[in-house]
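User: Good morning. I'm curious how zinc ion would be positioned relative to this chain. Could you predict the structure with it bound?
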Amino acid sequence: MRSKPAAIAALLALATVPVFSQSQTIRIHAATVLDGTGKVLRNATIVVQGSKITAIDTGSTTATPTYDLGALTVTPGLIDVHAHVGWHFDKDGRYAARRGDSSEEMLYSAENAYVTLMAGFTTIQSPGQANDVQLRDAVARGVLPGPRILTSIRQLNERSGTPDQIREQVRQLKKDGADVVKIFASASIRDGGKQTMTDAQLQAACGEANTLGMRTMVHAHSPESIKASVNAGCLQIEHGVFANDEVLKLMADKGVFFDPNVGVVLQNYLRNRVHYEGIGNYNAEGFAYMEKGVKINEEMIKKAVHTPKLMLVNGTDAVAGAHGHNADEIVERVRQGGQKQMDAVISATSLAARSMRLEKTIGTLAPGFEADLVALDGDPLSDITAVTRVAFVMKGGKVYKHVAPTALRTTH
Ligand SMILES: [Zn+2]
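Assistant: Good morning! Here's the predicted structure, ligand included:
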């Protein structure tokens, strides 16, 4: 019989064997790698050290891969520039008002973060609620599984006050650690989508943000509200259900990012109607607007995709019920709008990263970038639905998911 100290020493030795130490080199081999900027690499090995990619080798190599992903297609970790990670249904199955002050809400947010990561999204931007900050920081500590999170913390709207008061609020957002300023320039689609903030309010919000070097994202449905936002110096437009040729061209000319949401959010509301109806503007009229919105979106995305130089970024507006289905947006833009598959991949990787000013860190597979990558069952260039079959997820050099493709085919 071993002495007690020896037994303890043996246990300690076992306990301290690292599964993957940060300095260990990880080699990931795949038949096809899309680098996120438009390049296709065949028979490639991505070399990862710590949180970063150090090399991508193509052709034959003698080193045995740590992960041989066979026929899967590797892309950068997917990015959703508009996901409401805190939105959830409560224990009664109803859409819950979020006060941002309960541990129960925090746990729902953490659950949403987890399912989003498992769907291949390694970065999201949440426009936004107060407890996003705690979630963002908790995920960044590296234990809680979730995507990198950027948040607006709060929103500005027509009730945010005078231009001076709005500028003050933008300065406060910066102090509070907001990653982006979220602005409501128009009403909800459920209320018709007309411009709500005055031009002066928009100029104050986006002008002050630009002065402080902060990014802006603007909820805007009507052409007038989009035009006013672009002319106020705002950097990104969300939704744009009623965007016409004139404002699509305006966004393209001014280099404003456009994030239409045609594949997830309205479909999710209609699918989950029973969980929302009877709360606020989730009434019969609101749902009628949303039903119409699906069809109007389909016409709009065709025009948007075919507007030269318009920078379309992938965002879903994922709300309660939609988390984990984020990739449907990528699929629907191709299916409804005729977007080229490669453009759809770029819009969810390097271009989305650029819209967040993170293009030197994420969204591209190349040496020096964070090792955020996913492997898809299928080739999205021939079948875009491959983006919904995520077999492998690595974020910051750490593997969070690795399943057999057959498991995806049976469960999806
Ligand atoms: Zn939203």
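The longest strand covers residues 25-34. The radius of gyration is 22 Å.
Let me know if you'd like a different ligand tried.
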